[in-house]
Amino acid sequence: MNKIRMIADRETNYIYHMLSVARCGYDNDYGAKYRGDYPEEDLATIKKHERLITCAGGSHWGELYTLMLCYPAAQWAGDAKSYYQEIIRQADSGDVPEHYLALAPAAREIADVMVRNYDHYINDIWPEDKKSLEDYIAQVMPLFEQSDFTDRAETVVGCTLSVEAFHPSMVTSIQHGAEAIDISETHDIFGICRSPEDSFLFIGHEFIIYLLKQALREEDAFRRFETWEPTEALAEYYLKKLTGNTLFGGVEKWIELYSQCSEKGKPSAAELYRKALTKLIP
After folding, report:
1. Nearest to 72 by CA among 80, 60, 64, 62
2. Under 8 Å CB-to-CB from 16, ≥6 apart: which residues?
3. Which of 33, 49, 39, 58 is nearest to 226 (CA)?
4. Whose CB among 20, 37, 105, 250 lies 3.0–4.6 Å from 173's, allowing a Cys bridge?
5. Is 193 exposed, middle or buried (0-12, 13-18, 19+ CB in 10 A)?
6. Sign of torsion, CA 264 269 271 273?
């Protein structure tokens, strides 16, 4: 059974739309197309807090990224506007969790911009974005459904997905910036600017990463940046076994190592990972 369920979520698309038009982590033609729709001071406010609300390649996670993006995109029951209105209410009343107290003024400024511009996106831009997303998903989903990818991936990695399904949340606005961002235990953010075939590989790679989080749960993978490259390469190794292709360059030495380790047996993902650790420079 296919465990990849691509979605086009309105709230998620609004959030990343605003980052793109503000050149906050993303600078692309999509953002340029709509930038003139918004007051310059609103875009400047978002840009001012760029470091707090962006992430990058496993090396940076903004202090407000979870609060201001992940929660309203994937973990809030209502619409994004109501979420940001609640952020404003909490900031104004002082009802703020202690670990966010110092960041409450910045969160309130961002939330104010997100509330003010929400209706314009929903009414005037989302219908076109939604169609683009649905058309794209219709091209990619059959590649997973027809290849039995998720069942085969679970077999080759040696574990099953820890949740019912993996949800690639597709957005229109994130070309030339961070993607494959896990905004919840089941949702990752992906753009729609690559070919359907490349999207199949990219999403497939991230599905394997989610399997590796289970297979390597007793290891230090995903806990420190130094192990990022061999961990990503392990996903590429399994992707190549499943599809004959890889997605990222620069990991060939690790794939060769994993292949050599597998010539005389069937080592587990954890055993391959431990072998790679012995090759890391202390």
Report:
1. 80
2. 26, 171, 173, 174, 189
3. 58
4. 20
5. middle
6. positive
Residues of the chain with pLDDT below 50 are none
Instruction: Give dist(CA 13, CA 41) in Å, integer.
Output: 21
CB-CB contact of 222 with 231 (8 Å): yes
Contact assessment for residue 256 and residue 232, using Cβ atoms and an 8 Å cutoff: no
pLDDT digits (tens, 9 = 90+) for 10-57: 999 999 999 999 999 999 999 999 999 999 999 999 999 999 999 986
Burial class (CB in 10 A: 0-12, 13-18, 19+), 3: buried
Q: Note whether 177 and 25 are within 8 A (CB).
A: yes
**Residues contacting residue 79 through CB under 8 Å, at least 6 positions apart:** 10, 11, 118
DSSP 99: G
Query: How far apart are the C-alpha atoms of 178 and 182, rounded to whole Å?
Result: 11
The pair of structure tokens assigned to 145 is 């459904």
